Every structure is written in structure tokens, then in C-alpha cells.
Amino acid sequence: MAYETLLVETRGNVGLITLNRPQALNALNSTVLKELKLAYAAFHADDAIGAIVLTGSERAFAAGADIKEMQPLDFAEVYKSDFISGWDEIAKARKPIIAAVSGFALGGGCELAMLCDFIIASETAKFGQPEITLGVIPGIGGSQRLTRAVGKAKAMDLILTGRMMDAAEAERAGLVSRVVAPERLLDEAMEAATKIASLSRPSVLMAKEAVSRAFETTLEEGLRFERRLFQSLFATEDQKEGMAAFIEKRKPAFKNR
Ligand code: CO8
Questions:
Q1: pLDDT at 1 over 90
Q2: Which of 3, 18, 93, 206 is 20 to 30 A from 33, alpha carbon to alpha carbon?
Q3: SS3 for 118?
Q4: pLDDT exceeds 90 at position 232
Q5: Contact in structure between 64 and 103 (CB atoms under 8 Å)
Q6: In its keyword annotation, does this UniProt entry include Lyase (predicted)?
Q7: What is the ipTM, given to two decimal places?
């Protein structure tokens, strides 16, 4: 299928989505949302795909929601249509998604990166929630996910001033998992995604579910949830195979069942 705002391809067992609105620094408009949902759905339906990488250009992962699209909207319109609520669906995607971020990841762009499971950043990456400078606030999780990722002090600092933080600061703060040279960014993300895609699918999906649950529940409930998932994996052939392969000093041949 041809997309207007994305480049979508398959590399081995990994789905690669590249935001492609260079004239607007990949600003996120309603077409991007519609197409991202379609691309994600296609990769989820494809059993061969074990992980997804979402990236942008060297200059911008995404410079935020499309300000030109939003500027004329009024309250009744955005309220009635529950404007931007559709982005939540992306957070519910089951297969792991890695954000590979170079350049600007601002506003909705930073939030989109945080909707992914982890962020690998180029040394050139710049993260920020500048909505306050436009007379609004973050709308798809910036005030919640950023605060959980970096803590209250830095989240307040970024969201109240609208300043940007560079990749080194983002890594120190715990927002990104790795920082690499710009020319290594896509390879690093693809290698991580390829590794994930090579592992047993049930355990990968459950690992993602278990970590995600940590953001939604108490420690006691989370521990119980993790333990039940752990126990249930003993019903899979891949648990037998993975442990036998270790003992027999060979590579496991997972069947994803
Ligand atoms: N929306 C629409 N167009 C944009 C956006 C944007 N967010 N960002 C950049 N562009 C456009 C510019 O208008 C410009 O277009 P043109 O050439 O036609 O004038 C082109 O991209 C290049 O941008 P600049 O000339 O400004 O490039 P600079 O290198 O000078 O500056 C910056 C780069 C610093 C990134 C600057 O473009 C900027 O500040 N952009 C806006 C950043 C911002 O405020 N983002 C937050 C938007 S609000 C938001 O995200 C709400 C979140 C909640 C909803 C999320 C739903 C997805």
C-alpha cells in the first residue's frame, strides 16, 4: 500500500516505518495518525514480523503535532471529536516498537517516541515539550509518560519552560536507553529489533506486557501479574526448547509456540 506521509518496509523479520513529511519536519497531522495505525495493523497481522522500528529523518524525528492543522480548531470541535484520542491506540500495540530518534523530537514527536517501548537516540537528538510556548500543554501523554520516565523535577522544568534537552541529558535522565553516533542510529535500532524478533514470540509479548503493567498498577499487583505470566510460559514449547538448548550448548530453534 502507498502511504502519503510514511515510508514502510520490511527488513527480515522487522517492520520499519519512517515518518516522511520533510517539508514540515515530520509534524504529526491526522493523515500521519491514520497511516501509522494502518502500518502498525499490517505489521501486527503479519506473523513474520517480530518487532517494529519507528524513525524519522536525520533532522527531525517529529517536530510535534501539526500546528498549522491545529491553529483554526475551536473547543467544541476538538471536544466533540475527542481530538488526538486516537494516538492512544499506538501505545496499545502488542509487538515491541523501538523509536530511533535523530534531530527534533518535540511536543507530540517526543510523546510519540515515548509511546514506543524504548528510545535509541542519535547524539543529535533534541527532546522537548514546547506546547506551553503555544498556549497549550502536552496532549498525548507528555505530562504523564515524561514524568514517569524522568521524574517530577525534570518533567516540570521541561514542560513549564518548553526548553529542549539534548541526547546526553535525555540519557542521564532515563528517557532514552542508548545514545549512538548519527550514522549508527538506524543500524543500532535494526540490530536490537532483529534480536527481539529472533526470540520466542510469546515470551517477548509477555515481557512487554509485564514491563508496561509497571506503569499502571501497584507493586504487589504487578509482581503477581509477572509471576502468573512467568508460570504460564512453562506451557510453551519454546520454554522447553530454550532451556534444553542452553544445557546442550546450542542455539535454540524457537517455534513461537
Ligand atoms: N507543525 C507544523 N509545521 C511545522 C512544525 C509543526 N509542529 N514544526 C516545523 N514546521 C514547519 C515550519 O513551519 C517550516 O515550514 P515552512 O518552511 O513552510 O515555514 C518547516 O517545518 C521548517 O521549520 P523551521 O523553518 O521552523 O525550522 P528551524 O530549523 O528554524 O526550527 C524547530 C526547527 C525549532 C523544530 C521549529 O520548527 C519549531 O519550533 N517547531 C515547532 C515545535 C513545536 O512547538 N512543537 C509542538 C507542537 S504542539 C504539540 O505537539 C501538541 C502535542 C499534543 C498533540 C499530539 C498529537 C500528535
A1: no
A2: 206
A3: strand
A4: yes
A5: no
A6: yes
A7: 0.98
CB 131 within 8 A of CB 156: no
Residue 236 Cα to ligand 1 midpoint, Å, equals 48
* Cα 187 to the center of its chain, rounded Å: 17
Cell of 121: 537516540
Please give the radius of gyration of the chain, using alpha carbons only, rounded to the nearest integer: 19
d(CA 229, CA 208): 11
Q: What is the pLDDT of residues 50-90, one digit of tens each?
A: 999 999 999 999 999 999 999 999 999 999 999 999 998 88
Question: One of 24, 39, 65, 207 is an active-site residue; which one?
Answer: 65
> Which residues line the pocket of ligand 1, CB cutoff 6 A?
24-25, 27-28, 63-68, 84, 87, 104, 106-108, 111, 130-131, 134, 138-140
Q: Which amino acid is at 53?
A: V
What does the alpha-carbon distance between residue 136 and residue 213 come to, in Å, rounded to a whole number?
Answer: 29
Whether the predicted pLDDT of 245 surpasses 90: yes
34 Cα to the center of ligand 1, angstroms:
20
**Position in ligand 1 atom list of the atom nearest CA 32:** 57
Closest CA to 105 of 23, 19, 31: 19
Query: How many angstroms is it from 8 CA to the middle of ligand 1?
Result: 23
Establish whether 174 is a catalytic residue: no
Q: Answer yes or no: is pLDDT of 91 > 90.
A: no
Active site residue 128: no
- Tell me which of 35, 131, 171, 188 is the catalytic residue: 131
Confidence of residue 155 (pLDDT cuts 50, 70, 90): very high
2: left (phi over 0), alpha (psi -120 to 50) or beta: beta
Active site residue 56: no
Task: Please report where in the chains the cell 523530537 appears, as a residue.
Answer: 105
Asked if pLDDT for residue 92 goes beyond 90, the answer is no
